[in-house]
Design a protein that fits this description.
This protein is of the alpha/beta class. The chain contains 20 helices and 18 strands. The structure holds pyridoxal-5'-phosphate (PLP).
Length: 467
Amino acid sequence: MSAGADPRRLLPSVEQVLQRTEVRALEARHGRALVVRELRALVEDARTRAAAGDRAAVEAVAADLPARLAARLDQARAASLVPVINATGVVVHTNLGRSRLPAEAAAQVARIATSYSNLEFDLAGGDRGQREVHAETRLRALVGSEAAVVVNNNAAAVLLAVNTFAEGREVLVSRSELVEIGGSFRIPDVLRKGGARLREVGTTNRTRTADYRSALGPDTGLILKVHPSNFRIVGFTEAPSRSDLVALAHEAGVPMVEDLGSGLLAPLAGLDETTVAESLRGGVDVVTFSGDKLLGGPQAGLVVGAAARIGAMRANPLYRALRVDKMTLAALDAILVIHESGRAAADLPTVRMLSAPVGEVRARAAAFAARIGPEAPELTLSILDGTSAAGGGAAPTAEIPTALVRVAHRAKSAQRLAEELRMGDPPVVARLADGALVLDLRTVAREEEDGLAGALVRVAADPSRNG
Ligand SMILES: *Cc1c(COP(=O)(O)O)cnc(C)c1O
């Protein structure tokens, strides 16, 4: 072929490539459909370069088509969800998957997922059983409620409560509690989708029992109290006590429902959050909270409270659409065992990270910096005081004291370092603060430190993208 010929002619046809022995082997491993799709994309990409006159690129592709195809196939077959190192210091990081499960819960999920189980089978009687006897029995015992039901997430729990008790009726909510959580959970929208009408009570900063009393009527389906998870109203404020609201709801014969959001089981130092037991002790009929926030478990919506009320929710046909699968029940049960045995602070990553003393984080940060320094002469590392956050819409104003590793590169900007760390393997998500890249080891497991160190050393040394 002469040097001036159309470079597109360098490329074989898709049919020709498919006949090659190496490509047939790829087909046996990955399936014909995927091989054809990726091969077409590869050839198409080369044609575009050819049309742009990039002869060298096309020659390179033509010379090792099978190897390039194999690489593309590996990439196409790789899992889309991958583990990420969270060096942000935000413990319940919603975008990074909220709570990480302890190994014993993950092992229980794997056991149940890969076998048949007694999900809805009574082994003693040999006949149909109740799926509600598993995690829900333990949850009930743990929080001391008459009944419990588990659904897909806390949003589903609130939706189910509203639909069960207030379809076609009114839900009373204080104007200070019409919250939005994470962009897609907005109380007014959830009430509407639950078939109820919102009846706003009081004002943004002050709502009294009398305001609820004057809003109550024959159309009232329930009184809803919502935890202001991700903000605080401070200053000239007033809100009725939980027990006053409960008394009012019961006088009117409607249930009092509380959306607690994060679902703290036991008080946690430094976090000003209502516990589930406190809400129940206050007489609330139905308490809802998340499984993957401060509880430290899988995504789930936990509902506890009075037997008749929980029973009504379970009897709602919507429950069938919102209930959880066996893997979630398995994970939740294992998490509740840890809470039950008083091991949460030691064995649940979320609780452990939230309660790690600043001295411990500082010692780890210093050891980490001392270890990286000699391996990465391009970096300047220092230790700074800073704060971690609970995240996930819990304790929005709590600033957990922490120690940060500040990382500066002699040639790369903080943004560039952050991007290269995100694109690395394992991907690392760091924090940018005052124009600097900082790592908060509070949210990095000890077993992840080697991976983090390796990622940092590689990014420091990689000259390809300096600048
Ligand atoms: C987080 C939160 C929700 C949503 O919970 P999910 O489990 O994410 O569905 C609802 N209400 C409050 C008050 C919350 O904090």
